[in-house]
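Module 6 notes. Inverse folding takes a fixed backbone as the condition and produces residue identities as the prediction. Think of it as a translation problem where the source language is geometry and the target language is the twenty amino acids. Below is one complete input and output pair. Work through it position by position during the lab.
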């Protein structure tokens, strides 16, 4: 689901009368060699079926692995481009899931804040867990839905309205299912993006299954390492002109080389929080802890993001 307003969300999720059909395939999903994983897939959709489209094009890259500790998740990367002529504000993108694990009426939903991971599980013995985790260096949100009528939003009563979908994309509700379990669902998302015409934003998720909370947490951590370390972000697959960020790894000072005027630079931590705002091409991050950071460079027409590693 992608939306920028309570009156405008593009999705193929249940709506007020049946399943909404707000995306059009511009490139059917296909194999995408040379493979970075055991199975790479690629497809393109847009929101042209909407009555008033946002004019977005979404490239989807998917990665799946066959060997432990990476065999219990799939990585999905979405590159969202504003193909219109105006600015999009307060844009959110997320995944809706109604898992129905074992006894669907006895499920609970929760949120692991540190991992930006929403999850659902059954109350039975040796239960299964299913989860969605935000991998990209963008803010993570989770909205847990009670489908038995006890929550503020209930897609089973009167349908899942556009306004409710935008609320579930743009706000947090950490748990559902109460003390004894219920029929639940959740939306895991990222957003609050502002995209000028021609700009891109990248949002990545891991879809995870496991045998316990610990199991999915271990897979979530493995997915983050794989995403960060293998640089699965599609910056490898797109041309952004002559923008380079070095050195990487860095001991504190990074230099941004660009043939375009830089409007703004954001440095984000792994939680998607902005730790530095700057307009300089030389930035010192040595006051922060070692680890992964994301450098986001805004020019007049483009938005470029790259992972860097701080090692002091």
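Target side of the pair, the amino acids:
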């Amino acid at each position: 689901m992608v939306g920028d307003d309570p009156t405008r969300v593009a999705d193929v999720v249940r709506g007020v009368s049946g399943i909404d059909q707000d995306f059009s395939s511009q490139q059917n999903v296909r194999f995408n060699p040379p493979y970075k994983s055991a199975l790479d897939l690629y497809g393109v959709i847009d929101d042209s079926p909407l009555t008033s489209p946002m004019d977005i094009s979404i490239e989807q890259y998917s990665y799946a692995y066959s060997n432990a500790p990476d065999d219990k998740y799939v990585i999905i990367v979405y590159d969202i481009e504003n193909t219109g002529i105006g600015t999009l504000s307060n844009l959110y993108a997320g995944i809706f899931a109604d898992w129905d694990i074992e006894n669907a009426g006895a499920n609970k939903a929760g949120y692991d804040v540190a991992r930006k991971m929403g999850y659902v599980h059954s109350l039975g013995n040796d239960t299964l867990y299913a989860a969605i985790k935000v991998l990209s260096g963008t803010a993570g949100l989770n909205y847990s839905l009670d489908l038995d009528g006890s929550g503020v939003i209930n897609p089973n009563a009167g349908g899942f309205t556009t306004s409710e979908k935008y609320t579930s994309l743009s706000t947090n509700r950490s748990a559902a299912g109460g003390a004894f379990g219920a029929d639940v669902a959740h939306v895991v998302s990222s957003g609050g993006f502002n995209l000028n015409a021609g700009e891109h934003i990248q949002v990545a998720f891991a879809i995870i299954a496991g045998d316990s909370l610990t199991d999915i947490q271990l897979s979530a951590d493995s997915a983050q390492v794989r995403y960060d370390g293998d640089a699965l972000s599609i910056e490898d697959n797109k041309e952004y002109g002559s923008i380079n960020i070095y050195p990487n790894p860095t001991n504190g000072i990074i230099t941004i080389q660009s043939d375009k005027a830089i409007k703004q630079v954001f440095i984000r931590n792994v939680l998607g929080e902005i730790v530095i705002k700057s307009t300089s091409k030389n930035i010192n991050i040595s006051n922060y802890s070692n680890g992964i950071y994301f450098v986001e460079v805004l020019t007049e027409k483009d938005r470029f993001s790259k992972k860097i590693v701080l090692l002091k």
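Reference fact for the lab report: Residues 241-310 form a domain with the Immunoglobulin-like fold (CATH 2.60.40.1930).
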